Amino acid sequence: MDLISAYDGRCAITQCPIRPILEAAHVTPYLGPQTNAISNGLLLRADIHTLWDLRLIAIDPNLMTVCISPTLQDPSYQVLAGKSAYQPAVPASRVSPLALERQWELFQTRLSKDI
């Protein structure tokens, strides 16, 4: 429930407000209870969550913009590239920059293997 409140009930990447298809996603993969912190989470639409876990979608930690793997050629996903990721108004509810950096490295590793 914390992520739903923090993200105003909207996907951090698509802004989708349909709650039944929104999921709490770990930024740094789940490694036990210590990784279940709001700063290690994003509220994502279910399909975006899957693509996030597959390292096909990421958030650039420096620009806070959405990046899409070129292997994901569907226009409905490519249109998200370069859009600003939503950040909660309350700083304490925002995703950790360090967690985003770790996820970004995993995304970059996946990109280098796919090219």
Task: Summarize the entry for a quick read.
InterPro entries: HNH_nuc. The chain has helices at residues 2-6, 46-53, 75-78, 97-114, and strands at residues 22-26, 41-45, 57-59, 66-68.
Chart the SSEs and their pairings:
Layout (H helix, E strand, L loop, with lengths): L1 H5 L15 E5 L14 E5 H8 L3 E3 L6 E3 L6 H4 L18 H18 L1
Antiparallel strand pairs: 1-2, 3-4
Keywords: Endonuclease, Hydrolase, Nuclease
Pfam families: HNH_2 (PF13391)
InterPro entries: HNH_nuc
How many helical stretches?
A: 4
The low-confidence parts are none
Query: How many angstroms does the end-to-end distance come to?
Result: 38 Å
Written as H for each helix and E for each strand, in order along the chain, the element string is: HEEHEEHH
Helical content stands at 25-40%
Cα Rg: 13 Å
**For the report, how would you describe the main beta sheet?**
2 strands, antiparallel
Number of domains: 1
Strand order of the largest sheet: 1-2
Tell me the number of strands: 4
Global morphology: globular
Structure report:
With about 120 residues, this protein is of the alpha+beta class. About 30% of the residues lie in helices and about 15% in strands. The strands form 2 sheets. Strands 1-2 form a two-stranded antiparallel sheet. The chain has a two-stranded antiparallel ribbon with strand order 3-4. The longest helix has 18 residues. The radius of gyration is 13 Å and the shape is globular. The protein starts with a helix and ends with a helix. One of its GO terms (molecular function) is endonuclease activity.
